[in-house]
């Protein structure tokens, strides 16, 4: 079965480290993330390889709860997660956020998502719809992240 893959990027007026730190600060995640109504890491520690993060979408976006495990975590460079629960419509799901420095105070965030839909018999119908929804919402999320940095040099 072939996985669907999408990528969205945004340039932000902040260092790769600063953007990375905010993206993975779950105490502040809802200050910019337009998709979520709840976000936290399980346990007492900070995000890192092996840590489980829980993100629950807003009701108008389906309210799906994704439990993901960090499989990569290199500050200022990349973090990647894989889905460990089975929300409706998703058989497999994984995402990475890469950060590229474009100068001392400018960086690019590249969000890559791959997934397969279920039930398999309807994947041909579901995957284009889910892909479009994720691309649109990810673009909106990254623009909100950019706006937060634009509004304040240290959000």
Relevant terms:
7 strands; seven-stranded antiparallel beta sheet; alpha+beta; 24% helix; 41% strand; 155 residues; 2 helices; Alpha-D-Glucose-1,6-Bisphosphate, Chain A, domain 4
Main sheet makeup: 7 strands, antiparallel
The coarse overall form would be globular
Total discrete domains:
1
- The order of strands across the largest sheet is 1-7-6-5-4-3-2
Question: H/E series, N to C?
Answer: EHEEEEEEH
Radius of gyration, CA atoms, in whole angstroms: 15 Å
- Strand runs, count: 7
Structural class of the secondary elements?
Answer: alpha+beta
Q: For the record, what is the CATH homologous superfamily label?
A: START domain
CATH architecture: 2-Layer Sandwich
Distance between the terminal alpha carbons, to the nearest Å?
A: 42 Å
Q: Would you tell me which CATH topology applies?
A: Alpha-D-Glucose-1,6-Bisphosphate, Chain A, domain 4
Q: Which residues form runs of ≥5 with pLDDT under 50? A: none
Kindly report the average pLDDT value: 94
Strand content: 35-45%
Fraction in helix: 10-25%
The tally of helices reads 2
CATH class: Alpha Beta
SSE map:
Elements: E1 4-12, H1 16-23, E2 36-41, E3 52-57, E4 65-74, E5 78-83, E6 90-103, E7 106-117, H2 123-151
Antiparallel strand pairs: 1-7, 2-3, 3-4, 4-5, 5-6, 6-7
């Amino acid at each position: 079965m072939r996985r669907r893959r999408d990528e969205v990027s945004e340039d932000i007026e902040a260092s790769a480290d600063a953007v990375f730190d905010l993206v993975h600060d779950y105490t502040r995640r809802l200050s910019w993330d337009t998709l979520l109504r709840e976000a936290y890491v399980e346990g007492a520690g900070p995000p890192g390889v092996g840590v489980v993060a829980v993100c629950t979408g807003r009701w108008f976006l389906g309210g799906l709860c994704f439990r993901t495990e960090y499989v990569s975590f290199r500050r200022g460079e990349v973090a990647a997660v894989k889905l460990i629960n089975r929300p409706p419509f998703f058989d497999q799901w994984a995402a990475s956020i890469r950060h590229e420095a474009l100068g001392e105070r400018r960086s690019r965030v590249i969000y890559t998502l791959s997934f397969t839909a279920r039930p398999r018999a309807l994947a041909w119908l579901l995957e284009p719809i889910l892909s479009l929804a994720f691309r649109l919402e990810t673009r909106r999320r990254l623009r909100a992240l950019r706006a937060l940095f634009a509004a304040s040099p240290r959000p």
